Amino acid sequence: MNGNNEFNEKVISVNRVSKKTTGGNKIGFSILVIVGDKKGRVGVGLGKAGDVSKAIKKGSTYARKHLINVPIVNTTIPHQVLMKQGAAIVLLKPAPPGTGIRAGGSVRAVLEAAGIKNIVSKILGTDNQTSNVYATFAALKKFKIKNNG
Fold first, then answer.
1. 15-54 confidence digits (pLDDT tens)
2. What domains are there in the chain, each with its CATH number?
């Protein structure tokens, strides 16, 4: 893959799924991958395949094709945002320099991949990692990038 050094990949969750068939159980994997360049671009992809490596590749490819740009103002986000997606509710608040990333596991991974250095977040809904990743991604999509000109 070209651009492998440009983006950082992080596997968030690996789910083993199985389907009942007449010949027995068909086992597969569902993997959530976050891709980011730590400069304001981040993507999330869900890959499903019969083995882990193929599922990671599929998720990574999807994430790279669906990148979003996140506006970063003085190493943090422009304003506070509360996002509800399904059962997941995520609150993101800008923080002064030196605060660091105060966020729980899956939310932290998305924010680190985006390149945000100072932020405070709170997961208010479910503790399902996949739901929280998608809610955080939707919250970051809400920010509009202003063009100077």
1. 999 999 999 999 999 999 999 999 999 999 999 999 999 9
2. 8-68 (3.30.160.20), 70-141 (3.30.230.10)
Helix (H) or strand (E) segment spanning residue 16: strand 8-21
Cα 107-111-115 angle, rounded to 5 deg: 170
Task: Sort strands 8-21 and 81-85 into parallel, antiparallel or unpaired.
Answer: unpaired
Give the residue ranges of the chain where pLDDT is below 50. 1-3, 148-149
Tokens of 119: 């932020």
Cα separation, 83 vs 88, whole angstroms: 8
The pTM (predicted TM-score) of the whole model is 0.89
Euclidean distance between CA atoms 130 and 44, whole angstroms? 10
